[in-house]
Design brief:
It is a single chain. The chain has strands at residues 5-9, 14-19, 26-31, 40-45, 51-56, 61-66, 72-76, 85-86, 92-94, 103-107, 114-118. 0% of the residues lie in helices and 44% in strands.
Length: 124
């Protein structure tokens, strides 16, 4: 219920916060290349609003930014994420598109966020 927006800037390798997008918009850089942001393709906020997840295609990682303390962690994925698609669990996201390849998920609700692979279905 805010007028703020999170935006990833893939060209400049940044995570931006735009405050009051419908009024006197103010642009703030929350994280950049020096923080591990490399080719960001998506951003999501955790269910409890305490973490921000940034999917980085150029480094095959998800950056986790803690909003209360600004601690930044990198979660290695083993494969480039194509997005952050919210699933039914608390802060669980699909990172890759559906295919015959293993599906990559992010368990962002765990104390230590982690990437998980789900085996693909064999071709018929």
């Amino acid at each position: 219920n805010t007028r703020d927006a999170l935006i990833t800037d893939r060209r400049n390798h940044e995570l931006l916060l735009i405050r009051d997008v419908t009024g006197m918009a103010e642009r703030l850089t929350l994280a950049a290349e020096r923080d591990g942001i490399l080719g960001p393709v998506a951003v999501q906020v955790s269910d409890d609003n305490k973490r921000i997840f940034i999917a980085n295609s150029d480094s095959s990682t998800v950056t986790v930014l803690q909003l209360d303390g600004g601690v930044i962690k990198q979660v290695p994925c083993g494969k480039a994420p194509s997005g952050l698609y919210r699933l039914g669990g608390p802060s669980v996201f699909r990172l890759t598109d559906f295919s015959e390849e293993p599906l990559l998920l992010l368990d962002g609700g765990a104390e230590e966020p982690r990437a998980l692979f789900v085996p693909g279905l064999p071709a018929r």
